[in-house]
Amino acid sequence: MRHANISVFIPHVGCPYACAFCRQNTISDTERAPTPKEVDVQLKSAFDRIPERDRANTEIAFFGGSFTAIPEHYMDALLYVAGKYLQKDCHSGFSGIRISTRPDCISDSILIKLRNAGVTAIELGAQSMDDEVLSANKRGHTSADVVRSTAFIKSYGFETGLQMMTGLYKSTPEKDIKTGMDIAALAPDTVRIYPTVIIKGTELARLYEQGIYVPYPFDDCIDVCAKLMGIFADRNIRVIRLGLHAERSLEENAVGGFFHPALGELVRSRMIRDIIENAGTPAVCKAPSRLMSALVGHKGCNREYFAGRGVVFERDDALPADTININGKDFRIG
Ligand code: SF4
């Protein structure tokens, strides 16, 4: 069985910040933080539903807010409840706990507490490595906090994830690529890439409506994400998420920005287009079934883009599921 998460959303509760793009209650599709008892019910139900052999590949994931910034008694209660369903206390339990938090909400005492509670992976919302962008979006931390906390988390042996956003207020494609390179240099285990979605009721929506924040074109967003995917693939850093989940409340509350239900497919198509372009035409391009639609491009856009240039697209299921082959050379797409 592939790795799976049981997602427990802990919205904005306790977060003293007001990032320009955030209205956490909307994004996590829930109105209030669950009580420890409700979390217990959710985890018990997952424990009973997931076969014992699959629990070893399943983690409990507290996402949606800044886990280490919530009131300590609430964090302790959630960790206690989750602990009941972990392998460390129950041999047939889940493999660990994932949390996400801010780069400036990490300390020795917190990391020791998390490690003792069975947390295995910590993701930091870096968002940008450009201090002007961080400040303009009211993040309340700097890129130096990201560098320091990442090293700190790694030194404790946690799986380390970094989340970044593209197209924020005051950012540019160049700054977003630079952020990707700076994040890659920190060698996290995983990365999540979230192109900015402008949510009704946020500071960003106000700036957008006043014409002060003008997102760069959507095609540039695809281009930036394709380049970022290439940067992380080259360094064997797993991109575990590209774009926000298409939840009903998000679609209802998005007033602009980079939201597209087929974002992943568009970005993979662009990555492949760039690879073919760099390899030169004419070209023989092969992909396994899983990547065939990305090879020919979303709605055939790559086939159309290379029309008349001697580019042949072929299915080849002898290739690994994440690999394409251009003129005899393999490229991992992820
Ligand atoms: S720190 Fe996280 S939860 Fe708090 S406002 Fe910013 S994005 Fe939202």
Sheet with the most strands: spatial strand order: 1-2-3-4-5-6-8
CATH class of the largest domain: Alpha Beta
Distance between the termini: 18 Å
Number of helices: 14
Radius of gyration equals: 21 Å
Instruction: Summarize model confidence as the mean pLDDT.
Output: 93
CATH topology (level 3) name of the largest domain: TIM Barrel
Structural class: alpha/beta
Question: How many separate domains?
Answer: 2
Distinct compounds present: iron/sulfur cluster
Q: Based on DSSP secondary structure assignment, what is the total number of beta strands? A: 13
> Can you write the helix and strand succession as a string?
EHHHEHEHEHHEHEEHHEHEHEHHEEE
| Oligomeric grouping of the chains | single chain
* Largest sheet descriptor: 7 strands, parallel
Taken as a percent bin, the fraction of beta residues is 15-25%
Task: Tell me which CATH architecture of the largest domain applies here.
Answer: Alpha-Beta Barrel
> What fraction, in percent, of the residue positions are helical?
40-55%
> Would you identify the CATH H-level superfamily of the largest domain?
Aldolase class I
